[in-house]
UniProtKB/TrEMBL annotation:
GO terms for molecular function: L-isoleucine-2-oxoglutarate transaminase activity; L-leucine-2-oxoglutarate transaminase activity; L-valine-2-oxoglutarate transaminase activity. This is Branched-chain-amino-acid aminotransferase. Pfam families: Aminotran_4 (PF01063). NCBIfam families: ilvE_II (TIGR01123), PRK13357.1 (NF009897). GO terms for cellular component: mitochondrion. It comes from Venustampulla echinocandica. The keyword Amino-acid biosynthesis applies. The modification N6-(pyridoxal phosphate)lysine is found at K237. Its cofactor is pyridoxal 5'-phosphate.
Length: 408
């Protein structure tokens, strides 16, 4: 049906069989061919237009996540014909887009979430930015948006972050949240690969996720709605994955829960918590050995940078304390059994916003499964350690290859 909506497309003039072929599998091929002949991001072509009306800084204790933005934005336009055009930093401003732009109709949108931190010497640091760029390229490629040179983009983001330095508070816990976003801008109702796109980065100063210390959250195990499925796009940061999760989140909130614990399948595999990866620490039923478990990257799980950092740190530091670190599918029943048998040590979500979010309990099949925290405890031992270890590398207290120092 929708194919008939593409009367102006060059493809339409071709024979039906050719049209089908171009429509289906060779898409990735044609995008690669474009990339080879068109230009990639060129940071040397950056132009900077500074604002003439600098914003007042919001007092640190009044910062709300994603509410206020800095003075400028970084933008790059792309066309199928020319590739990536010259990058620009301009005053933060509205976009002007044709109402037929494909982003509004078919959700050609993907994004990233990363942070810039200020260290004790006043240097700005990014945390594992290469991972964010690689993930963004995977997301964009999946929805036929262009890919780009991640290293070139890190250079541009660095220049942008440096320009917005005054918005980055130097206290621990504070940072500048960076939101790289890519949208398809082609004016067409035809369902096909966008012939033009816009990649932009905006920035929002953020305070600590837990200003008064950890607060453990309560989850509702969600089985009536599914966040992601095999062969789907749950492992990509596409905007289209998030809007459908809000209604179940409101439902859970109505019953007094902070987040959904997304289950999958008849087995009720634990996948993710809200928009964070999920970790469970329990003692092995047979051996009694302590295990830190998280779901494997099977296509339904977002490849979290924090998830990877937690796993790396656990393998580096917890294994020698006798822990076993395991990426495998864990069912909700397994978790509930471990809780009932006193083997569940703790559970937490992991993501850039909070680093770790300790879980107090999970509502499941009308019962409340207790996740092992004492009543006066807001976080377990592993969550506490992980937050410290990761922050030490984010803020450069521990010099580490994960931290990228923005050149002055
Ligand atoms: C962004 C995101 C995460 C966490 O990824 P980080 O890179 O650690 O911030 C986890 N799950 C979902 C669904 C996400 O969108």
């Amino acid at each position: 049906m929708l194919r008939q909506l593409r009367p102006r497309s060059a493809l339409f003039k071709q024979s039906p069989s050719r049209l089908l072929a171009a429509w289906e599998s060779p898409r990735a091929y044609s995008i690669k061919a474009d990339a080879a002949t068109t230009q990639d991001i060129d940071p040397s072509k950056l132009s900077i237009t500074k604002t003439t009306t600098p914003k007042d800084l919001v007092p640190q204790n009044e910062l709300v996540f994603g509410r206020t933005f800095t003075d400028h934005m970084l933008s790059l336009e792309w066309t199928a014909k020319e590739g990536w055009l010259a990058p620009r930093i301009t005053p933060y401003q509205n976009l002007s887009l044709d109402p037929a732009s494909c982003v509004f109709h078919y959700a050609f949108e993907c994004f990233e979430g990363m942070k810039a931190y200020k260290d004790s010497k006043g240097q700005i640091r990014l945390f594992r930015p290469k991972n964010n760029m690689e993930r963004m390229n995977k997301s964009s490629a999946r929805i036929a948006l262009p890919t780009f040179d991640g290293a070139a983009m890190i250079q541009l983001i660095s220049k942008f972050a440096a320009l917005e330095e005054r918005f980055i508070p130097s206290e621990k816990g504070y940072s500048l949240y960076l939101r790289p976003t890519m949208i398809g801008t082609q004016r067409t109702l035809g369902v096909g690969p966008p012939g033009s796109a816009l990649l932009y980065v905006i920035a929002s100063p953020v305070g600590p996720y837990y200003p008064t210390g950890f607060k453990a959250i309560s989850l509702e195990a969600t089985d009536y709605a599914v966040r992601a499925w095999p062969g789907g796009v749950g492992d990509k940061k596409l905007g289209a994955n998030y809007a459908p999760c809000i209604l179940p989140q409101l439902e859970a909130a109505k019953r007094g829960f902070h987040q959904n614990l997304w289950l999958f399948g008849e087995e009720e595999f634990i996948t993710e918590v809200g928009t964070m990866n999920m970790f469970v620490a329990m003692k092995n039923k047979e051996t009694g050995q302590k295990e830190l478990l998280t779901a494997p990257l099977d296509g339904t799980i977002l490849e979290g940078v924090t998830r990877d950092s937690v796993l790396s740190l656990a393998r580096e530091k917890l294994v020698k304390e006798g822990w076993n670190i395991v990426e495998r599918k864990v069912t909700m029943k397994e978790l509930a059994d471990a809780a009932a048998e006193g083997r569940l040590l703790e559970a937490f979500g992991a993501g850039t916003a909070a680093i770790v979010a300790p879980v107090r309990n999970i509502s499941w099949k009308g019962k409340l499964v207790d996740c092992g925290l004492k009543p006066d405890e807001e976080a377990g031992e592993v969550a506490l350690k992980m937050k410290d270890w990761i922050e030490a590398r984010q803020y450069g207290d521990e010099e580490h290859e994960w931290s990228y120092v923005v050149p002055k």
